Amino acid sequence: xxxxxxxxxxxxxxxxxxxxxxxxxxxxxxxxxxxxxxxxxxxxxxxxxxxxxxxxxxxxxxxxxxxxxxxxxxx
Length: 75
Description:
This protein is of the alpha+beta class. 16% of the residues lie in helices and 24% in strands. It contains one helix and three strands, in the order ββαβ. It has one helix at residues 40-51, and strands at 11-16, 32-37, 66-71. A three-stranded antiparallel β-sheet has the order 2-1-3, covered by helices on one side. The chain is flat.
């Protein structure tokens, strides 16, 4: 089972494109990916990593993505 599909994990990150982003022509206006984590700490660390300026980026480049921390309830 893929970690992104694991329904036992509670803490998630939804990654999507900002409105009007030209990349939507390639992916789709409603494109989004969700990554799931066992703990809030794991999720928050992954969010920090995704938002940082990566070593292969040009100076000042920032990811043009929208990140949303989410949490599912296990009822």
